[in-house]
Design goal:
Elements lengths: L2 E5 H5 L2 E2 L2 H17 L6 E5 L5 E2 L1 H15 L1 H7 E4 L3 H18 L4
Parallel strand pairs: 1-3, 2-4, 3-5
Helix pairs in contact: 2-3, 3-4, 3-5
Length: 106
């Protein structure tokens, strides 16, 4: 298994808020996983320096991944570490809202 580590705080700043940046990152993640010569690539998002995340960023990065790729795929390929309670809440809320819109139960 190969691992791709992404420190969102270092790479994107401590306050994450751009839907466009999140969308570009999501697309890059999918390409990296699909093109990896090693099956089961794991992407680890380190949020240790992230103080806040907008709903739009969380939706575009995490919620759309879950909605489009599926919960099982997300659990197999994505890990979120060092996340504060408020940032975790925003991410989970964005995922739930996206799944509700798509008519998918979590």
């Amino acid at each position: 298994m190969s691992t791709l580590n992404i420190n969102l705080g270092n790479d994107f700043g401590t306050d994450l808020s751009s839907r466009n940046r999140a969308g570009s990152l999501r697309e890059s993640i999918i390409i990296a996983i699909e093109s990896s010569p090693v099956p089961g690539t794991l992407v680890i998002f380190d949020l240790s320096r992230v103080r806040s995340i907008s709903h739009s960023f969380a939706d575009e990065l995490f919620a759309i991944l879950v909605a489009e790729q599926g919960d099982e795929w997300f659990r197999h390929h994505i890990r979120v570490e060092n996340v504060s309670p408020i940032v975790r809440e925003t991410i989970l809320e964005a995922i739930q809202l996206r799944l509700d819109e798509c008519g998918v139960s979590a």
